[in-house]
Write a structure and sequence with these properties.
The complex is a heterodimer of chains A (198) and B (161). Chain A is 55% helix and 9% strand. With 198 residues, chain A is mainly alpha-helical. Chain A has a 3-stranded antiparallel β-sheet. By secondary structure, chain B is an alpha+beta fold. In chain B, strand 2 and strand 3 form a beta hairpin. The chains are: A mainly alpha (198), B alpha+beta (161). At the A-B interface, helix 1, helix 2, strand 1, helix 3 and strand 2 of A face helix 1, helix 2, strand 1, strand 4 and helix 3 of B.
Chain lengths: 198, 161
């Protein structure tokens, strides 16, 4: 290896090793001082990595309205990293709800778009008891006409009641997304640098 | 635990880190508590073969590693970019170049400090070296930038606990 490159590689490895060692020793001190949660999270991050949120493939390619809304928010494809899965999941939930509200209700009232999004042919609604699920979420009977009614000249509304309006609560939006298996973001675990870069 | 209590605990934990000489971790915890925490992730751009080129595909992008400092992430990115262009034929990757194809030989020769000629290759042959084995990381990085085929990028992420 060219000496210049070798120096650069050694320097990068030193920095990476310092980072790993510092996190681990720092966690030991925090544990001793009673900061157990922080110490555990720091140790886990050191061994398994951080939890990172990214746009789901579904959001990237299947639903352009949502993607353009994402662009409007000026966020990158990768948005945030967390020490614990619990925090990453909470953020994923907040972002999903905010995006649905923004795209289908605040930006322009587009309830048909919301229906289409929920009933995308690749989503996991097939085989599930949708009406029963909706009854539990909204505490009223909502008839489901099926996704096919959204297309063609005879299309009808998919649901007998709108699933989104100003009264819809955050938890109802989230449960509806879960019922239909519509994932806007996903969580990936990414290691923190340590050891050799080569 | 509510957010306020979480922040308070992080600030006290940050003081402990500071006291025991972990200045960088102390700053990291303090920044998280203030909502300004950041880490730097090296992401590899994904690509797949199309009809004639290898096309970049966003959904195939792969996160590789996270760094606490931007300087370290950039250092790693440059090494990885140099390694990739050392082993891959960047002309097989579909990229938007500002430099016309005819001028590339001259520009690349300038970077390498020796006459370089475009070798014959098929655009399908991605896994083929086209630059001299003795080229340095700096030279290869400059070529990757010229060709707009940097496979590795640094992405800034907001850090939470």
């Amino acid at each position: 290896m060219d000496p210049k490159q070798e120096n650069k590689s050694i320097k990068a490895n030193e920095l990476a090793n310092q980072q790993a060692e510092s996190l681990s020793r720092c966690a030991d001190v925090l544990e001793q001082k009673g900061f157990r949660a922080q110490a555990t999270a720091m140790r886990q991050a050191n061994s398994d990595g951080l939890y990172v949120l990214r746009k789901s493939e579904y959001l990237l390619y299947r639903f352009y309205e949502l993607e353009s809304a994402w662009d409007l928010t000026k966020e990158a494809d990768w948005s945030s990293a967390f020490f614990t899965r619990e925090s990453a999941e909470a953020q994923l939930k907040r972002m999903s709800i905010a995006m649905i509200r923004y795209v289908f209700y605040e930006k322009k009232s587009n309830l048909e778009g919301y229906d289409r999004f929920l009933c995308d042919e690749e989503s996991a609604y097939a085989g599930k008891d949708i009406e029963k699920g909706l009854q539990q979420i909204f505490n009223k009977s909502i008839r489901f006409a099926g996704a096919s009614s959204l297309y063609g000249p005879n299309r009808t509304r998919t649901f007998s009641h709108p699933l989104l309006d100003r009264h819809t609560r955050d938890e109802q939006i989230w449960q509806t997304l879960e019922l239909f298996g519509a994932k806007l973001f996903e969580i990936v675990q990414v290691p923190i640098m340590k050891g050799d870069l080569q | 635990m509510n957010e306020e209590k979480k922040e308070e605990e992080l600030l006290v934990a940050s003081d402990v880190c500071e006291e025991y000489g972990f200045a960088r971790n102390a700053k990291m915890l303090r920044d998280i508590a203030k909502g300004t925490g950041q880490v730097f992730m090296v992401v590899e751009k994904g690509y797949e073969y199309g009809d004639d080129f290898y096309y970049f595909e966003e959904h195939l992008d792969k996160p590789t590693t996270i760094f606490q400092s931007k300087q370290e992430a950039i250092c790693a990115r440059d090494m990885l970019n140099a390694n990739s262009i050392r082993n891959l034929n960047p002309f097989s990757l579909d990229s938007e170049r500002e430099v016309p194809f005819e001028e590339l030989e001259q520009k690349i020769s300038q970077i390498l400090g020796e006459r370089w000629q475009m070798p014959e290759f098929s655009l399908r042959d991605l896994y083929e070296s086209v630059f001299p084995a003795g080229a340095t990381d700096e030279q290869l990085n400059a070529i990757a930038k010229l060709l707009n085929t940097d496979l590795y990028q640094v992405v800034e992420l907001k850090l939470g606990f």
